[in-house]
């Protein structure tokens, strides 16, 4: 290495060292501010509200607006989520229940929303995830609610009808499915394990690449990875988290049939989120069984100028051939136009439950 090159590199490295020292000081200064916030809340009887979804969304959006590059916004968002997660853990570590075991897409969604400092509590079923928060054993739950190719997650919708929990956030996760196996090649694979939805999402690829392999649905992709790790003639369809956690090589990557395969998760807690400036409200309602009833129910949104982003029907469990409708609208329940629409809807609907208002996912 020439003296000129060594001198130039040394100057840049000295600058990096100086910047790192400044960053460390600023991060600790931010952490002390977070501790001070906790002290103020405790003094005013608000200690239980450690995590504020609306405040976090506002911070991340502001940082994206301020970001001059070269770091892309998704990297900036990831970095500051980790910073906020660590600062929150100084006040009170957040516990988050999700559909386990470790290595599922639900775990990835939980980490994406709450950061690596959160205490993760994997559960055996979506029912158990709800119960863990309802019983006060966890602060929040993260559950899948819909997939872009396979549609709604029926069990989540059913449980939302009866739970006292509120939707206080959402996570939109791009789903990349990989074929994981210790087998040396595709020709040695006789069985493919995965969650039923993942098998469906990779149906055409499996028909082409592994037409004779038995397809075995299991409770989660992480469970599939565990079984494939113990069976040299088996493979699992799962994501990066499962591949890393269970030490499985990727025989094929991104095998999902739809290139934009995405799953939306909702975050559930015991309290509503406040307005963040860009919000969504989810609700469920039922209509009287007569002609034009659904149009009659939806009219208040049109009249108030409120945009509806999702409408999903689901059979009512208590009455044969009757349905409930899950609806997402733009805006927070405290926004004037949304409040007007919901008040009128309450007068028209046979049944109405507001599931929560929460910030739109920040990518």
TrEMBL record:
Key words of the record: Amino-acid biosynthesis, Aromatic amino acid biosynthesis, Cytoplasm, Isomerase, Lyase, Multifunctional enzyme, Phenylalanine biosynthesis
Chain ranges of the ACT domain: 282-359
Top-level taxon of the source organism: Bacteria
Domain named Chorismate mutase: residues: 3-95
Localization per record: Cytoplasm
Pathway: Amino-acid biosynthesis; L-phenylalanine biosynthesis; phenylpyruvate from prephenate: step 1/1; Metabolic intermediate biosynthesis; prephenate biosynthesis; prephenate from chorismate: step 1/1
Record-marked site positions (Essential for prephenate dehydratase activity): 263
InterPro entries, sorted: ACT-like_dom_sf, ACT_dom, Chor_mutase/pphenate_deHydtase, Chorismate_II_sf, CM_dom_sf, CM_II_prokaryot, G/b/e-P-prot_chorismate_mutase, Preph_deHydtase
Entry GO terms, CC: cytoplasm
Main location group: cytoplasm
GO MF annotation: an example: chorismate mutase activity
Catalytic activity: chorismate = prephenate; prephenate + H(+) = 3-phenylpyruvate + CO2 + H2O
Entry's EC annotation: 4.2.1.51, 5.4.99.5
Domain Prephenate dehydratase stretches: 95-270
A single BP term in Gene Ontology: L-phenylalanine biosynthetic process
Purpose of the protein: Catalyzes the Claisen rearrangement of chorismate to prephenate and the decarboxylation/dehydration of prephenate to phenylpyruvate.
Protein name per UniProt: Bifunctional chorismate mutase/prephenate dehydratase
Gene, per the UniProt record: pheA
């Amino acid at each position: 290495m020439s003296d000129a090159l060594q001198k130039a590199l040394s100057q840049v490295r000295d600058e990096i060292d100086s910047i790192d020292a400044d960053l460390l000081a600023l991060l600790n200064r931010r952490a002390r501010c977070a501790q001070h916030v906790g002290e103020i809340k405790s003094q005013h009887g608000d200690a239980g509200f450690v995590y504020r979804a609306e405040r976090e969304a506002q911070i991340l959006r502001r940082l994206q607006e301020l970001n001059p590059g070269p770091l892309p916004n998704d990297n900036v968002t990831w970095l500051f989520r980790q910073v906020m997660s660590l600062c929150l853990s100084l006040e009170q570590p957040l516990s988050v229940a999700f559909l386990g075991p470790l290595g599922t897409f639900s775990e990835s969604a939980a980490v994406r929303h709450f950061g690596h400092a959160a205490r993760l509590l994997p559960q055996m079923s979506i029912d158990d995830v709800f119960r863990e928060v309802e019983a006060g054993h966890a602060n929040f739950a993260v559950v899948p609610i819909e997939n872009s190719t396979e549609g709604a997650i029926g069990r989540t919708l059913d449980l939302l009808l009866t739970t006292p929990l509120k939707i206080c956030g959402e996570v939109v996760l791009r789903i990349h499915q990989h074929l994981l196996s210790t087998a040396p090649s595709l020709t040695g694979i006789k069985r493919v394990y995965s969650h039923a939805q993942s098998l469906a999402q990779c149906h055409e690829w499996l028909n082409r690449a592994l037409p004779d392999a038995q397809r075995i649905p299991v409770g989660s992709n992480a469970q599939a990875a565990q079984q494939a790790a113990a069976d040299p003639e088996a493979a699992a369809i799962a994501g990066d988290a499962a591949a890393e956690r269970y030490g499985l090589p990727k025989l094929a990557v991104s095998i999902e049939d739809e290139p934009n395969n995405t799953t939306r998760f909702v975050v559930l807690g015991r309290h509503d989120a406040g307005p963040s400036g860009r919000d969504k409200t989810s609700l469920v309602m039922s209509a009287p069984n007569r002609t034009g009833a659904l149009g009659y129910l939806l009219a208040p949104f049109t009249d108030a100028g409120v945009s509806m982003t999702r409408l999903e029907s689901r059979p009512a469990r208590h009455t044969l051939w009757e349905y409930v409708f899950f609806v997402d609208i733009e805006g927070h329940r405290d926004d004037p136009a949304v409040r007007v629409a919901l008040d009128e809807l309450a007068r028209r609907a046979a049944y109405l439950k507001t599931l929560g208002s929460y910030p739109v996912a920040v990518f």
